[in-house]
Design goal:
This protein has 7 helices and 5 strands, in the order E-H-E-H-H-E-H-E-H-H-E-H. By secondary structure, the protein is α/β, with parallel strands linked by helices. The protein has a single domain, classed as Rossmann fold (3-Layer(aba) Sandwich), CATH 3.40.50.450. Helix 4 packs parallel to helix 6. Keywords: Transferase.
Length: 155
């Protein structure tokens, strides 16, 4: 059975609900895959309870290293630090990574007004994503910009 690790921020309602929607679509499409979702691991992620840093790190890293694929949600003001760490561990272990980056500011890359605005201080119309982390993904995987492409890449 193919094991997939789902790396995503998980601390706000918005993040958790988005994760639930994405995970439900993956499970609906690939019921034969075993999907590890950290936010579902209440033994270590119940924020009303307590798990120390080493317990969390060991639990999630063991699950990640036992996976054949990592899905990494890259959306947000910046890539979530936990997700970036998981990407680094997956890269080092040689586990393929599919990054999901849906930021709509990437649209219009040929719009001349948006390109001209890059010459003005603080007027970029595009989002920024950490290039080191992106490079790790691209050296051992792919980045997609929508859920449909993510579903296809999982296969």
């Amino acid at each position: 059975m193919k094991k997939i690790y789902f790396a995503s921020p998980l601390f706000s309602d918005m993040e958790r609900l988005y994760n639930e929607m994405v995970v439900a679509k993956i499970r609906e499409t690939y019921p034969e895959f075993d999907l590890f979702v950290p936010q579902e691991q209440m033994g270590i992620n119940d924020k009303n309870a307590y798990a120390d840093a080493k317990t969390i790190a060991k639990y999630d890293t063991d699950a990640l290293l036992n996976s054949q694929l990592v899905i990494a949600v890259l959306d947000g003001t910046s890539i979530d630090v936990g997700v970036a760490t998981e990407i680094g561990v997956a890269y080092q272990a040689g586990i393929p990574i599919v990054g999901l980056y849906t930021d709509s500011r990437q649209q219009g890359a040929t719009n001349q007004k948006k390109l001209d605005a890059l010459q003005e201080l603080a007027e970029s119309q595009f989002s920024y994503i950490n290039l080191y982390t992106v490079g790790l993904i691209k050296m051992n995987g792919i980045i997609v910009d929508n859920l449909e492409d993510l579903i296809q890449e999982i296969a």
